[in-house]
């Protein structure tokens, strides 16, 4: 059974439209030829995510999202997606987006990592951005 859950760590934030977002994420995963198992989205502070970045990725930089893939089967996705609410709010302002739109973009970005996309090169970033835009258009 597919289960997508949303949590908050050290941040006062409650996600709106959870059912709509869950259905959208499940459909997006299905469109990529995968099936969702357990996916947890954890909204947190910059400091919380920075500590994860230092501890697990040996990076000392702020980021908006870190994805941990726990999938054990090729066609099944499972994992945790940590999202800095502070970075999302700052990036929404920076890119002239609503906070809700930026949350959705970061959520689908994390899901794209779980289904197998990377963003280490410029070409990979371009492909991920195109995928994000496509899946965001399905939500509107």
Overview of the molecule:
The chain has a 4-stranded mixed beta sheet with strand order 1-2-4-3, sandwiched between helices. It has a single domain (3-139), classed as Collagenase (Catalytic Domain). Helix 3 (85-94) crosses helix 4 and helix 4 (99-115) crosses helix 5. A hairpin with a 6-residue loop joins strand 3 (65-69) and strand 4 (76-84). The two termini are 26 Å apart. The longest helix is centred in the C-terminal third of the chain and has 18 residues, at 122-139. It has 140 residues and is of the alpha/beta class. The protein is built from 5 helices and 4 strands; from the N terminus they run βαβαββααα.
Name the descriptors:
single chain; 140 residues; alpha/beta; Collagenase (Catalytic Domain); four-stranded mixed sheet; 51% helix; globular
Concise structural overview:
Helix 1 runs parallel beside helix 4, helix 3 packs across helix 4 (99-115) and helix 4 packs across helix 5.
User: What is the CATH homology-level superfamily?
Assistant: Metalloproteases ("zincins"), catalytic domain
- Helix content range: 40-55%
How many beta-strand segments?
Answer: 4
> What's the gyration radius in Å?
14 Å
Task: Supply the number of helical segments.
Answer: 5
| Name of the CATH first level | Alpha Beta
Low-confidence stretches: none
User: What is the fold named in CATH at topology level?
Assistant: Collagenase (Catalytic Domain)
String of helices and strands: EHEHEEHHH
Instruction: For the record, give the distance between the C-alpha atoms at the N and C termini, rounded to a whole number.
Output: 26 Å
Strand order of the largest sheet: 1-2-4-3
Under the CATH scheme, the architecture is 3-Layer(aba) Sandwich
Write down the overall mean pLDDT.
95
Beta-sheet strand percentage? 15-25%
Overall structural domain count: 1
Structural class: alpha/beta
Largest sheet composition: 4 strands, mixed
Shape: globular
């Amino acid at each position: 059974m597919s289960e997508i859950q949303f949590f908050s760590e050290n941040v006062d934030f409650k996600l709106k439209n959870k059912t709509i977002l869950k259905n959208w994420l499940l459909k997006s995963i299905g469109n990529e030829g995968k099936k969702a198992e357990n996916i947890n989205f954890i909204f947190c502070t910059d400091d919380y995510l920075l500590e994860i970045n230092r501890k697990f990725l040996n990076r000392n930089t702020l980021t908006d999202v870190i994805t941990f893939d726990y999938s054990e089967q090729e066609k099944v996705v499972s994992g945790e997606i940590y999202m800095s609410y502070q970075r999302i709010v700052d990036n929404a302002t920076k890119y002239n987006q609503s906070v809700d739109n930026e949350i959705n973009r970061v959520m689908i970005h994390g899901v794209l990592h779980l289904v197998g996309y990377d963003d280490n090169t410029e070409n990979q970033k371009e492909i991920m951005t195109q995928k994000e835009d496509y899946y965001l258009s399905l939500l509107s």
